Amino acid sequence: MAATMKDLSRETGLGLATISKYFNGGTVREKNRVLIEAAVKKLHYVPNEVARSLKTSHTRVIGVIIPELSNAFITSIISSMEDILRKQDYAVIVCDCRSDPKREKEAVDFLLHRRVDGLINMATDTTGAHLKAPLASGIPVLLVDRLIDSLQGKVSAVVIDNVHAAGQAVQKLTSLGHRQIGLILGSPNLYTTNQRLTGYLNALQDAGIAPDNEYIRYGDYTMDGGYQAAQELLKLKNRPTALFVTNFEMTLGTMLALQHNNIRVPEDLSVIGFDKLELFGEIFPDLTLIRQPQLSIGREAANLMLDMLSSKETGVSRIVTLTTELTEGKSVKALKV
Amino acid sequence: MAATMKDLSRETGLGLATISKYFNGGTVREKNRVLIEAAVKKLHYVPNEVARSLKTSHTRVIGVIIPELSNAFITSIISSMEDILRKQDYAVIVCDCRSDPKREKEAVDFLLHRRVDGLINMATDTTGAHLKAPLASGIPVLLVDRLIDSLQGKVSAVVIDNVHAAGQAVQKLTSLGHRQIGLILGSPNLYTTNQRLTGYLNALQDAGIAPDNEYIRYGDYTMDGGYQAAQELLKLKNRPTALFVTNFEMTLGTMLALQHNNIRVPEDLSVIGFDKLELFGEIFPDLTLIRQPQLSIGREAANLMLDMLSSKETGVSRIVTLTTELTEGKSVKALKV
DNA sequence: GCCTAAAAGCGAAACGTTTTATTTATTCTA
DNA sequence: TAGAATAAATAAAACGTTTCGCTTTTAGGC
Question: Do B178 and B274 share a domain, yes or no?
């Protein structure tokens, strides 16, 4: 049905190799160029990437495996990644594994069958077992947002400095006199959860404050979870004077919980949130928060992947650590001592 | 590097065709089956989908073009679609065109080059010009969420009955005595926007109420837009007694605006929202809203696409219209007359 | 105009599968 | 146990590109 290069060859009277050269940026005599272009138009020729892939043994497809597609932070990273990759003519196959390691492994196999040129993974399986095969096959593998201990030195990654980010937020609070600081974390055992907890604990220690487990809650990185965690913290007999919430959805949930309870920010309670997404826009313009550069994360990941694809040196591990920013708002007040 | 069927053939002493038959479900003598499986294990053979695609001239890839990846309604549809398609061994290439018709057209071309087996599109370009080529090429094209007039009869689609959905909501309000009903719509000229507006106007007419343009606002389908639109409606001298908000993000924005203004729902103002997404969870359990079955939309779309792929009849147009549901909460009160 | 160097064009093989038409092996019947 | 009928295995061609090693054409200098 569709026209092939062979048809172009017949139509123009030129050799197949010449047609191919034309499409691959080689030089072709002016009159032949015209001839070819006319034939392309006439026959509605569209190059067959599949055949090209078979021959060149690269597909210009990147597999992206994520825990959840319904997460604003993740989609904004993917968005910026996809944008850059597509501009370089790379397609992105997204696999949502619903935070299930089994599905994640299946996704890896699925993508490997399809001979993707590279793999970008926001990992669910914290052991890294699922990445054995792709690593062995020699294709570039890139972790995003979450490192995996056992893969250290074997894999590249783009992350933020979570310890520092959390430390910065908490230190801000302690420096203003807060000593009872509620922390709302994501799911236990995740890399980011652990790192942010570490940052929190470090900052408390620096301020000479003993941590209280009552103040540490896990909100599953969902709006609902954040809402619940905030509710619980508010019910404590010894209610915290400040809250540090460690992602976007949970921050939203927390703010809603506060509003439902008629708690004023910062008069009654100080809050530092996490992630500035477009959604926030004008709605909480006064929120003090830790801003993760999700656009940069996506951009760095895409560019790092492109680098890895074009450099022959395989098995090199590069870790890009991006820094977060504390955006001052009006949701934190100094405690009168 | 990677093992091929030819290697298996050499290893087992069997013919290439036999190996192929084995992989494609043909019958093979027991001892040969064992032989092949051993060789597969030994050589770490992984089938090359690219070669297979070239030969069979289908790629088992579906292209999905959407206006925006950062939209909870859209990602929840994609999520459920991807799930079903991947189970049938179809990969999904997602292209986010940022609501830009030019990018949308580019995405179509991009996917066509890659010889996707089918195209699913939540269309940005309301003229449908971008779908000419794929339609002509004979691959299945499926619209989701938004119809395109000029393509009627030429293309299949999965949509909800927007006119009815909006009518249902507004009729609920009028039946309870509301006559000043604010409407917060998405971007002008979109299919869903127009349809929902029609449903609103119909219901007003049925109730003998003359529409007031002041009450009709466009919130761009974003949380921010919804927030702004609500703010504006609240400032009207003749403030509406009820609000109907036509998507998830804007509903969220509206609720925040109400909370910021200390307006109680439903005591001070009745609200009917749109879209029940997981995010909502426990947070607004009492919100009355129109529930779009996004999981079903994704499922129906995936299944319809699979149908189209397996049936030879090309160019048949099937429109699946799903119904919405009015979920009663406590955010609407009857007006004392 | 002739010769040479450089540029452009060419045929054929290859990438890793599937498939068709054919050959070979197996099973069953009598 | 021969022969027919059936089941399984096979070789070779094809899918639409790229690329290698050669041949032909062109342009330039004298």
Answer: yes
> Is B329 domain-assigned?
no
Q: Give residue-wise pLDDT tens across range A228-284.
A: 999 999 999 999 999 999 998 899 899 889 988 989 989 999 999 998 776 555 567
Same domain, B226 and B285: yes
Q: Are residues A124 and A143 in the same domain?
A: yes
**Does the beta carbon of A48 lie under 8 angstroms from any beta carbon of chain B?**
yes
The spacing between the Cα labelled CA in B39 and the C1' in C25, in angstroms, equals 23
- pLDDT single digits (tens) A39-66: 999 999 999 999 999 999 999 999 999 9
Instruction: Tell whether A155 and A77 lie within a shared domain.
Output: yes
The answer as to whether A328 is a domain residue is no
> What string of H, E and C letters represents the secondary structure of chain A?
CCCCHHHHHHHHCCCHHHHHHHHCCCCCCHHHHHHHHHHHHHHCCCCCHHHHHHHHCCCCEEEEEECCCCCHHHHHHHHHHHHHHHHCCCEEEEEECCCCHHHHHHHHHHHHHCCCCEEEECCCCCCCHHHHHHHHHCCCEEEECCCCHHHCCCCEEEEECHHHHHHHHHHHHHHCCCCCEEEEECCCCCHHHHHHHHHHHHHHHHCCCCCCHHHEEECCCCHHHHHHHHHHHHHCCCCCCEEEECCHHHHHHHHHHHHHCCCCCCCCCEEEEECCCHHHCCCCCCCEEEECCHHHHHHHHHHHHHHHHHCCCCCCCCEEEECCEEECCCCCCCCCC
Nearest to B278 among A51, A70, A82 (CB): A70
User: Which nt is closest to the CA of A26, judged by C1'?
Assistant: C8
Same-domain pairing of B176 and B284: yes
Query: Whole domain around residue B135: which residue ranges?
Result: 61-160+294-323
Measured CA to C1', the nucleotide nearest B9 is D10
| C28 C1' to A216 CA distance, Å | 77
Whether A224 has its CB under 8 Å from any CB of chain B: the answer is yes
Which one of A282, A286, A312, A331 makes the best mutation probe of the B interface by having the most chain B beta carbons within 10 Å? Answer: A282
Residues A270 and A205 in one domain: yes
Residues A123 and A70 in one domain: yes
* Average pLDDT score over residue span B136-155: 94
- Whether A126 and A97 map to the same domain: the answer is yes
Give the orientation angle of helix A16-23 with respect to helix A5-12, to 10 degrees.
110
Note whether A102 contacts B: Cβ–Cβ < 8 A: no
pLDDT of residue B27: 84
Within a domain: residue B76? yes
Residue B256 lies in a domain: yes
Give chain A positions within 8 Å (CB) of B49. 113-115
User: pTM surpassing 0.85?
Assistant: yes
CATH number assigned to the domain comprising residue B304: 3.40.50.2300
**Structural domains counted in chain B:** 3
* Single-letter code of the amino acid located at A75: T
Tell whether the model's pLDDT for residue B286 goes beyond 90. Answer: no
Q: Which residue of A has its CA nearest to B59?
A: A50
